[in-house]
Amino acid sequence: MQKGAITKYRPFQQINLPDRTWPDKTITTAPIWASVDLRDGNQALAIPMNVDEKIEFFELLVATGFKEIEVGFPSASDTEFRFIRRLVDEKRIPHDVTIQVLVQAREHLIRRTFESLEGISNAIVHLYNSTSPLQRRITFNKSKDEIKKIAVAGTQLIKSLVPTIPATNIRLQYSPESFSDTEVDYALEICEAVIDVWQPTAANKIILNLPATVEVATPNVHADQIEWFCRNLRIRDTAIISLHTHNDRGTGIAATELGLMAGADRVEGTLFGNGERTGNLDIVTVALNLYTQGVDPQLDFSNLEHTRAVYERVTRMTVPERHPYSGDLVFTAFSGSHQDAIKKGMDLREKEAQPDARWQVPYMLIDPEDIGRDYNAIIRINSQSGKGGVAYILSREFGLDLPKAMHPEVGEVINVTADADSRELPAKEVHEIFQREYVNLTTPLELISIEREDFSTTADIRVEAEIRYNGEQMNITGAGNGPISAFVDALQMQGWKDFNLLDYRQHSIGGGSKTEAAAYIQIQHNEGSLVNGCGIDSNIELAGLRALVSAFNRAHKAHPESPQV
């Protein structure tokens, strides 16, 4: 790479548009969507789709809601031609779907393209030729007038062939390929020359597709190009302005969104951005971006997992883990602070129980359920995780709603394992660690059985517990206003009580005959430390007692100097 003064590259020339209006616009309606997966996306594959795979993909696009689908380049190969004919012969094209076919402005290719359209109700013939200075000089060695004549001649031939298939409604789309690198006044000149031949009307509009074939500038420059073109086109009401961005600079989505603000009506792109070089526009992302702003995208991605599965199978491409909306990890938080905020947001939403209320969960732009994702992978545990994430996993996956005061201690216990092993802990392992460290502990104190006797004259009860303490089995007794306080009294009578009971919580797990009770107890050891324990049992009283025993045992582990038998 050059250093200092860069002579190898030059900044792209800005558009003179001092009164630009697009920065003040917002996108309030969905554009016309056109999928080019079966052409632009297919030609970008190391192993292009076969006819059966293309048919499966076509049906996916139809089910998603696309009304305009570019199905291929029928003059380019026999596979492309046969695919289109199968769509026709097998009557797979719905009446409200228009297929689009791409063709260069060359006579024999245009004639072959029309052969493929026989029997189709509605079709867009997409004519293109390159117009940029670089293409004119290097690829074609032609002048501006010569390049314009190619476009005009192609349009004339298409217009002359329309009557040869009278049962087909033909619309014309013209692309000055490499519009992004073409002088805007020349791009306008060549498009208006095509319009003069085609003679569109407000009822039968021409599509002028303005492709950012190569991204050569920042998205705001692209928006300036689109606004300048729309403002200077002399018969704007007879044209649909279409965008076709690529992603060479990584800003194809931004360029498209700004292009729509600048006046475009239509968007061409592919699912997940598959395309040559760094890819085409990712329609999934743009559509769901609209959705998160309260705009109906008019495309159905409510089962995005299925959409992705079909795409990956037929294209042999893989959606990256961090790909917006559809990647495996985009709804996953490892960071402790993120996990805590997400848990609080999800808990509040669940408490309010209004599924169609405004979505307000920190760090989450969209409700995963809206696109067919579940909540299982929202929070995952590794050494970066915190108390909120662990509590979320135990609550969502295993029904254990830990008291807030317990979160820091449990989070630290789980984090120690993740940090020591330098790995992610699956939810099952998080649960296993919690069970091992907190639930129904039996060393050194084990509760074997307990009997209670209610006093008839007071509210107090007496308990007799069969226990095992440091391996020695015995019976102990105590009295109190409930089983837990009576058991604490029994421990005190043995000289084993070296704590104060601070908090007791309980809730049910599951439902029906399999319902269990989970209880949580926090004690404060005489030395001052806070210790928690959990008990789980089908009997709610036993769950509380087991929670107390678990807390006692954890305190004994932390303070081995505690009283012995």
At the fold tier of CATH, the topology name of the largest domain is TIM Barrel
Record field, number of beta strands: 14
Tell me the distance between the termini. Answer: 77 Å
- Identify the CATH class of the largest domain: Alpha Beta
Q: Biggest β-sheet: count, sense, barrel?
A: 8 strands, parallel, barrel
Q: What would you say the CATH architecture of the largest domain is?
A: Alpha-Beta Barrel
How does this model look, in words?
The protein is of the alpha/beta class and 565 residues long. Strand 12 (499-509) and strand 13 (516-525) form a beta hairpin. Helix 4 runs parallel beside helix 6 (144-161), helix 6 (144-161) packs parallel to helix 7 (184-198) and helix 8 (219-232) runs parallel beside helix 9. Helix content is 38%, strand content 19%. The chain is elongated. The longest helix is centred in the C-terminal third of the chain and has 19 residues, at 540-558. The chain has three domains: 30-299, Aldolase class I (TIM Barrel); 336-437, Helix Hairpins (Orthogonal Bundle), CATH 1.10.287; 445-558, Alpha-isopropylmalate synthase LeuA, regulatory domain (Double Stranded RNA Binding Domain), CATH 3.30.160.270.
